[in-house]
């Protein structure tokens, strides 16, 4: 279906449910992180891109302070809530994301009236493609326009971060919403997480005869869980012991000296972040000079660093990466926060089927749940579609 038709179907369903046409329909994409993992909260560099899988919201402002929320995928039914009593921790399931956005805008001093909202999404949930930020970015785009708050991209990024960190309680950085809000067709988003400076970097795999495969291992991750929090704590500890504001300020050349100051575990955590920042910069340079065909080794090195130094991979992700590489992918890595979720495999078109078949076979042989495998391309960021 085209975007216009999808928007029309959603608007019609909204009208059936809520008795009036929506004020508009907005969409925001999930994202794949090409490279730069766990660098965002270290004020470093990331290189994600918005994908061609999106969350869409039909939304209509109300005259009172009631919020009514419904999704096409069921779950929770029609949820009604009051804006006045919103506080961190309220709401459940997917409704936490629109409520969190409304709360964050209120905290920002914006008067948010009540609204009716119908959500649809084809971003796989919990697969490391940031389905949560896709919802938040679609909702904040709608409310920013309809309330005439006119916040710029950088303020929208910080508001959605507050929604996730404080309201939902997931300690995420600014990468996901930056990709969703600022992404563009055919481009990766090179983001400096220290000052939110963005440069769009052409990433046209297709023109290079490549496809970007996503392998959703179906192993569920949870950002709020202890592994993510403990990695953040290690990074803060490392930065403190090295006397820098953030690990962004440590260069690769300083790693030898760092060895004397850090315990072995903290050293490995620090080494991942410092080397990963350098790999992001190299990837940007390589894309400019050689195109997507040149970045395979950088993807592989990123995976090894996350597996061995940051220790956030899992057997399913390692199997997806190793099997993809052994069957023709030019580079592969886990993507997202880790402990499950998805891997990406940059693969020559002529090897796509072989990689798909081999990964499915290897998962079956290992007794793992069958993975979901699909291609993604860099797509437009959040926008109004009707
Ligand atoms: P990710 O953002 O990586 O997909 P999260 O755990 O941050 O993973 O967000 C997943 C949550 O978002 C789910 O637990 C659910 O509440 C909500 N969600 C997002 N998309 C959907 C969907 N299509 N169906 C049901 N819930 C969804
Ligand atoms: Mg999320």
TrEMBL record:
Q: Which residues form the GHMP kinase N-terminal domain?
A: 97-183
Query: Which part of the chain is the GHMP kinase C-terminal domain?
Result: 294-362
Q: Which GO terms describe its molecular function?
A: ATP binding; galactokinase activity; metal ion binding
User: Which UniProt keywords are present, listed alphabetically?
Assistant: ATP-binding, Carbohydrate metabolism, Cytoplasm, Galactose metabolism, Kinase, Magnesium, Metal-binding, Nucleotide-binding, Transferase
InterPro entries membership = Galactokinase, Galactokinase_CS, GalKase_N, GHMP_kinase_C_dom, GHMP_kinase_C_sf, GHMP_kinase_N_dom, Mevalonate/galactokinase, Ribosomal_Su5_D2-typ_SF
Task: Please list the residue ranges annotated as the Galactokinase N-terminal domain.
Answer: 13-60
Supply the Pfam families for this chain. GalKase_gal_bdg, GHMP_kinases_C, GHMP_kinases_N
- Read off the PROSITE patterns from this record: GALACTOKINASE (PS00106)
Keyword Transferase set for record: yes
Q: Which BP terms in the Gene Ontology apply to this protein?
A: galactose metabolic process
GO CC entries: cytosol
Q: What Enzyme Commission number(s) apply to this enzyme? A: 2.7.1.6
Q: Which family does it belong to?
A: Belongs to the GHMP kinase family. GalK subfamily.
- PANTHER family recorded for this chain? GALACTOKINASE-RELATED, MEVALONATE KINASE/GALACTOKINASE
The protein depicted here goes by the name Galactokinase
Which organism does this sequence originate in?
Answer: Arthrobacter cavernae
Q: Which gene encodes it?
A: galK
